[in-house]
Design a protein that fits this description.
With 183 residues, the protein is an all-alpha fold. The protein is built from nine helices and no strands. It binds zinc ion (2 copies).
């Protein structure tokens, strides 16, 4: 049976960055005035918390969706076996994720001005994660921090896919007990 077009339309890096970038444009166009005024430092901190929240989101999606739910699992496996092939993520899913990242904080906080910087931090985290993931798979030498991430991701790809889910940080792998053994 042919797949519905909504599942077939997927963007490879760097085109895939278009969706979180579009989300940031939407946020910028609706940026609350309070956040531009005297709450700059507080909203910057909330933005950083958003980046941290993204690293948890990434861990959860990677571990339980990309490795647990079909058809994401089969698509993700293609990238595991041949790292040169991008992770197939339908644009429809990316759009829903960006809409959730923007809509959910606003909804939960009852329209607080801090929802926008939280969402912006999460979308920036998404951009950063995709860009870093791309760098981890090229052959260019990296700095110490990225080399450690490349080792973690390489272990996840080629040694044991039940460990090393984090791209930007191994923090959640430590918390959830999925850090590769030190060897
Ligand atoms: Zn990879
Ligand atoms: Zn994986």
């Amino acid at each position: 049976m042919a797949e519905p077009w909504m599942l077939r339309v997927a963007l490879a890096y760097p085109a895939s960055l278009a969706v979180p970038c579009a989300g940031l444009v939407v946020l910028a166009m609706n940026w609350p005035v309070e956040v531009l005024g005297d709450q700059g430092l507080a909203s910057f901190s909330v933005g950083l918390a958003g980046v941290a929240a993204w690293t948890l989101t990434e861990y959860v999606l990677h571990r339980w969706m990309l490795h647990g739910v079909e058809p994401f699992r089969s698509w993700h496996r293609v990238h595991h076996h041949n790292a040169a092939l991008p992770i197939r993520v339908p644009v429809l899913f990316s759009l829903l994720l960006a809409a959730t990242v923007i809509g959910l904080p606003a909804l939960i906080s009852g329209g607080s001005a801090f929802a926008a910087p939280l969402s912006a931090g999460m979308l920036l985290g998404n951009l950063l994660q995709e860009s870093v993931h791309h760098r981890l798979h090229d052959t260019q030498p990296l700095g110490d921090w990225l080399e450690a991430k490349r080792r973690l991701h390489g272990f996840h790809h080629f040694r044991d896919e039940r460990r090393g889910y984090g791209t930007l940080t191994d923090f959640w792998d430590r918390i959830f007990g999925t850090l590769p053994p030190r060897a």
